[in-house]
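Progress against Task 2.4 (sequence-to-structure conversion) is shown through the following example record, which the project officer requested during the mid-term review.
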Amino acid sequence: MLRQRVITALVLAGAFVAILALAPFPVQSLLFALVASAGAWEWAALVGARSVILRLAYTVVIPILCFALWMRIDLGGTQSAAAAQPWLAAAALLWSAMLLGLKYYPAGGWLWGQAWIRAIMGWFMLTATWLAVSVCLILTNGPIVLFVLILTVAVADIGAYFAGRRFGQHALAAAISPAKTWEGFWGGMLGVAALAILISQNLPLSQLHLGWGSLLVLGLATAGASVVGDLTVSLLKREVGLKDSGSLLPGHGGLLDRLDSICGAAPVFALGLLLVGY
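Structure tokens generated for the chain above:
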């Protein structure tokens, strides 16, 4: 299983780097909207949609919402990052509120049991993720900024995996994901802290004003949000009796099983960059 996970991760990483290096911004944004739409196809199972028609009907909402946001914000325009900030703040606030749902689960089953609630959550979270990714791309050195986001999530995940396997004893959220431990969580956070300090020592001159403290807080907040995203999708899968969101990615399950952490992290990361004056 570990070998499959590594091979799949390398293929995904190669495709991701190729998009960042070779595609212009509008094409990048379009491709990531397609990825969000693929995530919606799998999220439709969390809503209870079983037929192809119902899943397509659920999925097609994502490109429509992405296009509407593109037009509303004038994405790529000179003021688009500032215009996106309220939307990113709303997404970050929603993820913060999800901490309560995770903390008190299985209480609140009356809420998660509503298919329409799960449907709206998927549309909002996937569209907000696409927006955050697109905002990262239009910032100075956008492809590098987005790469740092994905690297932060990956380091948090890898650190949690190995620290959890070696030291894990205390369940982080036993009712939602029994395999996750507090030891793994802190291992991931420690890895992200080291990454943030490393990045702060190699900032370009134009970004020296950020400082290592701001980057450390941003990195830890992003890593924490990635865990919330992961656990939220795990909660919803548990509610509908699914182990994986799909089987598209060998060793990882479905695409949504990889996107869940990014869904939580991306809005927090993009908003944080804007707030610290990137």
